[in-house]
Amino acid sequence: MKKNKVVLIPGDGIGPEITDAAKMVIAAAGADIEWIEKKAGIPAIEEGKNVLPEDTLDAIKQYKIALKGPCTTPVGKGFRSINVQLRKKLDLYAAVRPVRNFPGIKSRFDDVDLVIVRENTEGLYSDVENEITPGVVMSMKVATRVACTRIARWTFRYATLRKRKKITVFHKANIMKLTDGLFIECAQKIHETEYPNIKYEEVIIDAGCMKLVQDPSQFDILLLENLYGDVVSDLCAGLVGGLGVVPGANIGENQSVFEAVHGSAPDIAGKNAANPLALIMSAVMMLNHLSTSKTDVYKTAANKIKHGYNQALSDGMKTRDLGGKLGTKEFAQAIIERLDGG
Fold first, then answer.
1. What would the pLDDT profile of 235-286 be if each residue is shown by its tens digit?
2. Can you tell me the distance from the alpha carbon of 102 to that of 83, in angstroms, rounded to the nearest whole number?
3. DSSP assignment, residue 137?
4. Active-site annotation holder among 12, 230, 298, 306
5. Is the pTM of this model over 0.90?
C-alpha cells in the first residue's frame, strides 16, 4: 500500500507532547504514515510568520488531510482563532464530535452514545463585527441556504452510512426566525425529499440542553449551527468525562483536519501531565478516513488503537485528569502494550 502523507500541526502548549504520543501509538499500530510537519499559532509567530502561514494551508490542500494539536487563542484581543481560520479558509464545513462512555471513567450516565455535527463556516463565527459608535458594537449572524443545506445533507448521509436512527436539530428559531428558521427549513427539506427513512425532530436549544442533562440516551445525532455546536459539544463531553476523552474532525469536500477539541493548557506544558487520548482518538478517526477497505492497514491500525485505549482504561491506566497517575508518555505506552487485541 502506498504510504500516505499527512500534515502534522503540533500546535503549542501541550500540543507537541500529545502529538508525539499520538505518532508513537500510530506507528506501533502499523500505520505507515509520512508526517509533513507544519506550524500554526504561537510557534509560527515566533518564526516571524503569520499565525496561520500560507505554506501550512498549501500543505493541507496538497495532501488533503491533517492531524492537529491544540493552538492557543487569545481571549478578547489578539489574533483570530486558528481553528476558525482553518475551517473558513479550507471550507471544512462539517465538524464531527462523537461522544460516548468509556470503561473505567465514572460519569453520571452509562448509556451515552452521541454524535454532534456542527456547521463549521458561518453563524456568529463569520467574523462580521463592527463598532457602530463608541460603546456600541455589533456582531452579525450569517446563514446561507447553501451552507445550511449542505450540512443537513452531509448529516443525513452520515447517519445512513453509520446506521444511526435519528437526527435532532437544536435551534432557536422561535427568536431568530430568519437565520435559525433557514437552518431548520433546509434540514426539513433534506429529510422529506432525500432521507425520509431517518427519524427527524427539532428541539429549541435551551430545552434541548435540559433534556441532554436529564437523559442523553434520548438523542442520537445532534445537528447544530456553529455557535450552538461549539457549546453543546463541550456540554456533551462533560457527560462522559470531559474534553480529554472526545475526538474531533473537520470535514470538507477536498480536505479534512482531525484535532483534539480541548485547549492548549500552557500551565502544564512540558510537564508530561497532559492527556493525549482525545488526539489519539482523533487519529483513529483519521485512520478510518484514510481507509479504503475493512481490512487495509489503516482500518486494522484504527481497530488496534481503539482496542488499546479501551483496554487501558478498563485496566485503570489513566492520566491525572481522569483520576489516574500516568503521564502523557506512560499512557501512550499503556495503549501500545494493549494493541494486539484489536
1. 999 999 999 999 999 999 999 999 988 989 999 999 999 999 999 999 999 9
2. 27
3. E
4. 230
5. yes
